[in-house]
Amino acid sequence: MGILDHTIGEEIVLKLVQIHHAEEIFQCVVKNRDHLKRYVPFAETTKEVTDTEQFIRHALEQFSLGKEIHIGIWYQLRFAGMVGANQINTALGFAEIGYWLAQDAQGKGVMTRSVLSLMDYLFVERKLNRIEIRCAVSNQASQAIPKRLCFQLEGKLRQMTQTSQGLEDVYVYGLLKKEWEQAKEHDYWQYFRNENANRWKILERDSRRS
């Protein structure tokens, strides 16, 4: 099974998370706890680096089963967040993408490019037909990603997510492979690709390697 090992331009690197990444992931969560805690439940429950190690072990186990993939984002050589796919269902050709980003890395196109990279992996390497992104109705920053990447707003689920403010409604955004194939040729998407096409790569590696 392949992993995503993806260099974007000169500043963004994506890697499958490994146990030896635990300390820098933990420190990023601690630094950004107040920024993350409303929408990212583990920001409050991650108290020790061992909590992060436990998450990574589970993530790698699920990756080995083909059910999930969790990718670390390094921006300007520093760990800055994660993007991943949960509930990968190859029978239905479906996955749900989730993400979080450090506050000081926002507003620079980091997450848009990272999500776009994962979408390419899921549609091309995993041969999925549908990708979904769910965002709390109040989380406009998160909603900007699917809107920017041509996802369709398909509906609203009432009181579907638990945030630090209580239960909140969730918007459901979806994108089909045929829509991705059409959208990826548009000038808007090419902006995210062409400026770093010479560095674009998807490498197949054993999941035990970093």
TrEMBL record:
<dbReference type="InterPro" id="IPR016181">
    <property type="entry name" value="Acyl_CoA_acyltransferase"/>
</dbReference>
<dbReference type="GO" id="GO:0008999">
    <property type="term" value="F:protein-N-terminal-alanine acetyltransferase activity"/>
</dbReference>
<feature type="domain" description="N-acetyltransferase">
    <location>
        <begin position="23"/>
        <end position="178"/>
    </location>
</feature>
<dbReference type="GO" id="GO:1990189">
    <property type="term" value="F:protein N-terminal-serine acetyltransferase activity"/>
</dbReference>
<dbReference type="InterPro" id="IPR051908">
    <property type="entry name" value="Ribosomal_N-acetyltransferase"/>
</dbReference>
<protein>
    <submittedName>
        <fullName>Ribosomal-protein-serine acetyltransferase</fullName>
    </submittedName>
</protein>
<keyword id="KW-0808">Transferase</keyword>
<dbReference type="GO" id="GO:0005737">
    <property type="term" value="C:cytoplasm"/>
</dbReference>
<dbReference type="InterPro" id="IPR000182">
    <property type="entry name" value="GNAT_dom"/>
</dbReference>
<dbReference type="Pfam" id="PF13302">
    <property type="entry name" value="Acetyltransf_3"/>
</dbReference>
